[in-house]
Design a protein that fits this description.
By secondary structure, the chain is an alpha/beta fold. The chain contains ten helices and five strands. The protein has two domains: 103 residues, Rossmann fold; 96 residues, no CATH class. Helix content is 58%, strand content 12%.
């Protein structure tokens, strides 16, 4: 099963922490809370977190300082900033520093719920893309291992392995190595070549439209 999406809420106001917890309640989330930025950093060092929701104004460490530290140490975390009324400049500064989004106090539960859902969807897409690239790399390594073994016939090697067959077919039209895996300096060209290969697999019926759309979205996002 896919691991739950971990959310850390940092706010010195207990009432707001409870409101935030209620607003984002979901079976797919594993929420944690912290009373300020210092405690939030301590918890981030103990367990991985996908989404951070933090207030701007907190004792010991404010939200912007926390955001800077998080961006330095855990750049994958999506940070949602909670700002006070009239703190638009601080919100803009937070976005400039790399925050995913912001919500102004006083907020409606629906506002934070929608913002969090958007962040959750981005986390899902990031996970799917990482899984897809891992699969492509694994299949590419298998094809390279096959190329090094001149004693076996390609048809024999892929006859009972659909994934290997699909990637083998792609490799006949688009030379390996996969650019996404081995040529990061030319990423856009590599993505285009793999997309063209996926289109060919779709045309041949080796990929369904749903599979093609999922892979295309993971590659180009």
């Amino acid at each position: 099963m896919e691991s739950p999406i971990r959310v850390l809420i940092a706010d010195d106001d207990e009432t707001y922490r409870e409101v935030l917890l209620d607003s984002i309640k979901s079976d797919e989330l594993k929420p944690e809370v912290a009373s300020d930025g210092v405690e939030a950093l301590e918890k981030l060092g103990k367990e991985p977190v996908d989404i951070l929701i933090t207030d701007l104004h907190m004792p010991r460490m404010d939200g912007l300082t926390l955001l800077r530290r998080v961006r330095e140490r855990y750049p994958h975390i999506l940070t949602i900033i909670i700002t006070g009324y009239g703190s638009l400049e601080s919100a803009i500064e937070a976005i400039r520093l790399g925050a995913y989004d912001y919500v102004q106090k006083p907020f409606k539960s629906q506002e934070i719920a929608v913002t969090t859902r958007n962040a959750i969807e981005k986390v899902r897409m990031t996970r799917e893309r990482a899984q897809l690239l891992s699969q492509l790399e694994s299949l590419h390594k298998r094809l390279r291992a096959h190329d090094a073994d001149g004693q076996r016939d390609a048809g024999e090697w892929i006859s009972d392995d659909r994934e290997a067959k699909d990637v083998y077919c792609l490799s006949q039209s688009y030379p390996l190595p996969f650019c996404l895996v081995e040529v990061p300096s030319d990423r856009h060209s590599g993505i285009w070549m793999v997309l063209e290969g996926l289109k060919e697999l779709l045309r041949r019926g080796s990929l369904s439209r749903t599979e093609y759309d999922r892979m295309r979205n993971a590659l180009v996002d």
